[in-house]
Structure formats: structure tokens, C-alpha cells
Amino acid sequence: MILIDTNVFLEVLLDQKKAGECKALLKKVSAGELEAVVSHFTVHAVEAQIGSGPGLVEFLRTIENSLGLSVHDTDLSDEIAASLLARSLGRDFDDSLQYYLAKKLGVEAIVSFDHDFDGLDLKRAEPSEVIASGPAEE
Hints:
Strand content: 5-15%
Strand order of the largest sheet: 3-2-1-4-5
Radius of gyration: 14 Å
Distance between the termini: 5 Å
Structural class: alpha/beta
CATH superfamily: 5'-nuclease
Order of helices and strands: EHHEHHEHHEEH
CATH architecture: 3-Layer(aba) Sandwich
Number of helices: 7
CATH topology: Rossmann fold
CATH class: Alpha Beta
Helix content: 55-70%
Number of strands: 5
């Protein structure tokens, strides 16, 4: 199982330069070929970034209908732990929350373009790497 970071979704929704590899990864997750998790924090961050309109509805429906994707809610105790972790890791809250959740759920990697995840005891992988390595099963 992998954790998908916010920037993977934004690459697609904002049609950025690595959108193709992100679409390919998300297609495999949607079809159930890969098992993945996303934090509800990520869903909210994407919602805030894209605002409203048909893109937002399409994004939410895609998340809802993805066979291999689960959305994980955090509670206040998770967010307190991530806040404390942010200080010790020297990372901001959102990266620390993603890392905390990834560790809690025992994922293989955080899929992200964010180099702030480098140097931690959990692998950061880019979408193209995950696609090339095949299914990430638990």
C-alpha cells in the first residue's frame, strides 16, 4: 500500500508537466490494481486549491469511485502527534501529518514530488517509480 500526497492530484487537476505519470498512477489505483490511501487532509487541500465547479465534482467522484483508494480520517490525537512530530522532524504540519499517517498505516512509500519527505525512514517515490515497480500490495 502507498500513501498519495496532495501534489500528485494537483499535477493532474492543474495540468502540470508530470500530469501524465500521475494520471497513469491514479488510473491503476482507480481500477484496483494498486492499493493506496489518501488523507482527508489531502482531499481538503485539493478542494481548497481548485475551488468549485465541475473539476471539484469530478475530483471527488473519482476519489469516491476508486477501487484501490481509501480515504483516512485523522482525529485530534493524530493531529497533535503530527504537530509534535513536525517539531522533531523539522518539517511543516502537512508533511508531518502525511508522514505520521504513512507510518501509522504501515505503507511502503509516500508517493510525492515533495523532497521534504527525503531523508526520512520511509521511502518517497514518484508516480513513475511506483508504476514501473508494479503493484504495491500489503
